[in-house]
Amino acid sequence: MTGSDEDPRAAELRTAVSRLRRELAAHPADFPDRVVAEDELAALAAMADHGVPEAPRLRRSLLLVAGAIGSVSALARGLSDVRNAVELFGEPPRG
Length: 95
Known about the structure:
Helices cover 65% and strands 0% of the residues. By secondary structure, it is mainly alpha-helical.
């Protein structure tokens, strides 16, 4: 999708994920779940590139990324941006 055909939510997600991936790549510290974060960010990027992603799958990936890098304060802003972009696809049902 390009130009006016692109879903603005997907564009926002793509931008946020790309930024966090760059921040993670530049982060010097190694931590146990870094590979998990990198893999899930790649999955989020792929979902953003291929139409309108499924909200439950987005939230699952977000949870895995948050669990993997949640304690790395230097990445908190980027993680928050990804969370906000995922939330554009809808809130989970309240039960």
